[in-house]
């Protein structure tokens, strides 16, 4: 997911492209929706400008006058018409700059230039959205930017320590955008790892003794947030930021910069929000491990637990089947034993004898399971020799009602009505 540094670089990339091109048209990939509304802009020439704050980007449309209009209005001052939209990237949003006939797939929002190029907002998962507004999100949703408003960010956090949210672990509080507006999953892992802070320690205990200002030599957690974000912004050639041509660089630079997040040998656990928290192995004892690491040291206890789980999974479950034991004795006196299921459960009950032609059958049936045994009734007037289940109490009521409704007339159709008097499907006829 793009975090604060990625959106800051995206805004810088937008300003770089806008300084070299003039735009003529705004297009949408699909029909307007609540997440992707239509942008009410139809000026033939306009420019764009981007500004990032936390995990949001504000794009400003500004009208660019034609040369004829400028010449005719030399005496009067031209006031351009403007429009602002607030854009969030979601889980996989990014900017791309290509030729108009080479637009990338999932380009939800497109700005065509006058020289047959297109600046696009690409979002493969369609989680990003935009709205028409001149202001940022409310402080209840997103706080000051750690990158560009560090002093306001520090003051805002230290003045809010009495809030109940700071009773939670520091790793969960760092994902609260109303306090830590730029921080995401990989940033919190890197910040806490460099300061050797237990990610599940109470946030109030970590932050309550911090001074109003922090030194560059010994940064505290708030200063480290600002420092780490700027390190990502200044990375060159990584897979996260943008280069001037809009092409992603080598992701290996970003992977080399990481010290904890998804690094071989590091521990990981799952917080209460279901997010994976990467940390030092000394803070991972007793917590549920989601991702397996390739470290050579594996505890024997974990192997024993896995063996126990595998035994439980492979152990056969008791299946409450009706066991039918039959001893078939033909006329010659030889016994014929039927095949029996391995999982069948032996049930003792009274034997039931039935004599058929050429064989004597002895069966033992569980009387409680008789309702699940299909039997064939003798042909009679009411059921026409159909194969049905053993009649339950409910079935008997229906049969009796049908007989009463028919009035003894066999040719009269028997139907059943619901509470509203509507005819439902007939029974047995």
Summary, kept brief:
With 429 residues, this protein is an alpha+beta fold. The chain is 23% helix and 20% strand.
List keywords for this structure.
single chain; 429 residues; alpha+beta; four-stranded antiparallel beta sheet; 23% helix
Explained architecture:
This protein is α+β, with helices and mostly antiparallel strands. The protein is built from ten helices and 16 strands. It has helices at 4-18, 67-72, 150-158, 170-173, 185-194, 203-207, 221-233, 252-257, 300-314, 393-406; strands spanning 23-28, 46-53, 56-63, 82-88, 93-99, 107-113, 117-123, 129-132, 267-270, 276-279, 328-329, 335-336, 351-356, 359-364, 374-376, 387-389. Strands 1-6-7-5 form a four-stranded antiparallel beta sheet, with helices on one face. Strand 2 (46-53) and strand 3 form a beta hairpin. The longest helix is centred in the first third of the chain and has 15 residues, at 4-18. The relative contact order is 0.08. Residues 243-247, 290-300, 317-333 and 352-391 have low confidence and may be disordered.
């Amino acid at each position: 997911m793009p975090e604060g540094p990625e959106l800051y670089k995206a805004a810088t990339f937008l300003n770089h492209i806008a300084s070299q091109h003039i735009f003529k048209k705004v297009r949408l990939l699909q029909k307007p929706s609540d997440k992707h509304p239509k942008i009410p802009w139809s000026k033939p020439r306009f420019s764009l400008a981007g500004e990032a704050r936390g995990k949001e980007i504000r794009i400003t449309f500004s009208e660019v006058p034609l040369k004829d209009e400028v010449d005719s209005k030399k005496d009067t001052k031209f006031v351009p018409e403007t429009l602002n939209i607030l854009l969030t990237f979601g889980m996989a949003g990014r900017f791309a700059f290509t030729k108009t006939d080479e637009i990338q797939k999932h380009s939800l929002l497109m700005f065509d230039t006058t020289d047959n190029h297109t600046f696009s907002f690409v979002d493969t998962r369609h989680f990003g959205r935009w709205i028409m507004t001149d202001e940022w999100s409310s402080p209840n949703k997103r706080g000051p930017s750690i990158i560009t408003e560090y002093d306001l960010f520090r003051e805002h956090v230290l003045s809010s320590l009495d809030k109940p949210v700071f009773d939670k672990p520091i790793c969960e509080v760092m994902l609260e955008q109303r306090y830590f507006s730029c921080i995401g999953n990989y940033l919190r892992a890197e910040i806490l790892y460099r300061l050797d802070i237990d990610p599940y320690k109470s946030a109030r205990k970590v932050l309550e003794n911090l001074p109003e200002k922090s030194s560059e030599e010994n940064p505290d957690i708030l200063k480290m947030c600002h420092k780490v974000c700027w390190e990502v912004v200044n990375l060159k050639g990584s897979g996260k930021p943008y280069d001037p041509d809009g092409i992603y660089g080598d992701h290996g630079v970003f992977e080399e910069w990481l010290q904890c997040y998804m690094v071989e040998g590091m521990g990981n656990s799952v917080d209460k929000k279901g997010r994976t928290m990467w940390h030092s192995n000394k803070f991972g004892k007793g917590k549920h491990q989601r991702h397996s690491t390739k470290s050579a040291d594996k505890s024997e206890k974990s192997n024993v637990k896995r063996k126990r789980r595998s035994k439980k999974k492979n152990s056969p479950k008791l299946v409450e089947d009706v066991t039918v034991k039959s001893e078939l004795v033909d006329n010659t006196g030889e016994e014929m034993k039927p095949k029996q299921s391995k999982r069948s459960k032996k049930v003792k009950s009274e034997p039931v004898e039935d004599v058929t032609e050429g064989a004597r059958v002895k069966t033992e049936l569980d009387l409680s399971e008789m309702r699940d045994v299909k039997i064939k009734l003798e042909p009679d007037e009411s059921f026409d020799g159909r194969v049905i289940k053993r009649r339950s109490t409910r079935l008997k009521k229906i049969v009796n009602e049908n007989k009463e409704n028919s009035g003894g007339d066999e040719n009269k159709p028997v139907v059943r009505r619901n509470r509203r008097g509507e005819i439902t499907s007939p029974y047995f006829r």
